[in-house]
């Protein structure tokens, strides 16, 4: 980070320091204004799934701009939007049949929440007004999305003023801190499902619209993965009470975990609504979306026949053209399968080379989506005090050495805990993965010595 940001007219995330300026980006690398090259080991926030500067995406956007750059969806549609939806929903995978494209993952979650509410109003059960979600989850920064998330630091200024009060929470699928010592995976999974069942009964299942969960946890708790059978149990429970299941795959979807939909690895899940983002457009344009199951669409179609929601820039033709080009690159280069294969190598290297280190408490993830949780004491799992800034030190030192990683705090309970996330492009070369591991180990060694 550079010094004072007083000369910038941008309201940056920090008012104290100014971020480095990226002059160009190509493949897996950024080039900064000072000439330094940075290996993008996290693709921002798990965004740039096909890396930077792809010529096919650039050509697709230019072609779309030469045809039509904007059309309002109240009256018009465009070929790029229609083809993107058809590509994502070819064969109605898992019963998903309609796509609603917006500009960000937060907007996608808000749209999913509205779809859930309208579904129940039109299904004749308007008393369903509540959501159940999980602690240590992140679903976006708009008011609705933030309300169902549980990122403590981001919610703190708005509690009791702006956030919704119709949300309750259950435990996350966070084995490192929730699974009991000696507890079998199946027993742990069932305990989580039983807890959810108890929450449904406490709240009153007839009052609940939907249960919302990240299939694989994102930035708040760093790539936490569900135990075997968990989401199948959740699906059966939602079916039992008629509650909708909304899966947030804004960060973990679009191939990031080794299958296009992360939930495809969880057995018979069949979500009613799925949110996608980040990897959907690969960072080339801002785009996210909601994919809806035919069950939801059929109720609206037989009722009002409209979705009471809209954005000026929804299904923006340039954004859809870019996202469509990204999907074609993923398919052409077999990058989702590539992600699964290279993810095995990355997991092995992380566990072998960093797992034994003094402050590495847990390594978790799937595909090319891995989180490292750091703790002060590996035996007790005691987190560092926030004033140690372990994850921030990791990020800063990594960037100094030429590697971008994604840091996070409040990992353990929203207040304490440190982690970093690795999420390189799905087409990252083996050479660059080797460099990533080398720089990550050097980064950790410096920070460990500094902290010790």
CATH class of the largest domain: Alpha Beta
Number of helices: 14
Which stretches are poorly predicted, pLDDT < 50 over at least 5 residues?
Answer: none
The global form is globular
Span between N and C termini?
24 Å
| Mean pLDDT value | 96
- Adjacency order of strands in the biggest sheet: 6-12-11-10-9-7-8
Main β-sheet: number of strands, strand sense, barrel status? 7 strands, mixed
Total separate domains: 2
Helix fraction bin:
25-40%
Radius of gyration: 22 Å
Structural class: alpha/beta
CATH topology assignment of the largest domain: Aspartate Aminotransferase, domain 2
CATH architecture of the largest domain: 3-Layer(aba) Sandwich
Strand content: 15-25%
The count of β-strands is 17
GO molecular function: pyridoxal phosphate binding; transaminase activity
Family: Belongs to the class-III pyridoxal-phosphate-dependent aminotransferase family.
InterPro entries: Aminotrans_3, PyrdxlP-dep_Trfase, PyrdxlP-dep_Trfase_major, PyrdxlP-dep_Trfase_small
Keywords: Aminotransferase, Pyridoxal phosphate, Transferase
């Amino acid at each position: 980070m550079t010094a004072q940001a007083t000369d910038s007219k941008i309201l940056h995330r920090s008012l104290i320091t100014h971020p480095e300026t990226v002059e160009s980006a190509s493949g897996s690398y950024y080039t900064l204004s000072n000439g330094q090259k940075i290996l993008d080991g996290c693709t921002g926030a798990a965004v740039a799934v096909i890396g930077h500067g792809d010529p096919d995406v650039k050509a697709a956007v230019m072609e779309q701009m030469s045809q039509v750059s904007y059309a309002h969806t109240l009256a018009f549609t465009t070929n790029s939007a229609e083809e993107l939806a058809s590509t994502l929903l070819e064969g109605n995978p898992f019963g998903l049949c309609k796509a609603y494209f917006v500009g960000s993952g937060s907007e996608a979650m808000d749209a999913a929440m509205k779809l859930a509410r309208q579904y129940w109003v039109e299904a004749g059960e308007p008393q369903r007004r509540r959501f159940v979600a999980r602690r240590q989850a992140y679903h976006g920064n708009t008011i609705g999305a933030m309300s169902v998330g549980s990122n403590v630091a981001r919610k703190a200024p708005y509690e009791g003023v702006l956030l919704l009060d119709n949300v309750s929470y259950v435990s996350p699928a966070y084995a490192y801190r929730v699974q009991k010592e000696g507890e079998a995976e199946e027993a742990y999974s069932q305990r989580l499902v039983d807890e959810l069942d108890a929450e449904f009964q406490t709240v009153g299942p007839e009052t609940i619209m939907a249960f919302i969960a990240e299939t694989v946890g994102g930035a708040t708790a760093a790539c936490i993965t569900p135990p075997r059978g968990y989401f199948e149990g959740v699906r059966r429970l939602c079916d039992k009470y008629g509650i909708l299941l909304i899966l947030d795959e804004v960060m973990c979807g679009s191939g990031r975990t080794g299958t296009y939909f992360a939930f495809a690895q969880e057995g018979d899940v069949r979500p009613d609504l799925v949110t996608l983002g980040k990897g959907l457009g690969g960072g080339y344009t801002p785009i996210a979306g909601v994919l809806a199951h035919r069950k939801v669409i059929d109720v609206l179609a037989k009722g009002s026949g409209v979705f009471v929601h809209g954005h000026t820039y929804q299904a923006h033709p340039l954004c859809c053209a870019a996202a469509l080009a990204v999907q074609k690159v993923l398919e052409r280069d077999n990058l989702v399968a590539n992600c699964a294969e290279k993810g095995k190598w990355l997991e092995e290297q992380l566990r072998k080379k960093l797992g034994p280190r003094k402050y590495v408490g847990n390594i978790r993830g799937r595909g090319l989506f891995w989180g490292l949780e750091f703790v002060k004491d590996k035996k007790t799992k005691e987190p560092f005090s926030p004033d140690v800034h372990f994850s921030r030190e990791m990020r800063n030192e990594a960037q100094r050495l030429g590697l971008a990683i994604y840091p996070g705090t409040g990992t353990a309970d929203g207040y304490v805990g440190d982690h970093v996330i690795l999420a390189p492009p799905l087409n990252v070369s083996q050479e660059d993965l080797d460099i990533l591991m080398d720089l990550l180990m050097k980064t950790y060694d410096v920070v460990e010595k500094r902290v010790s």
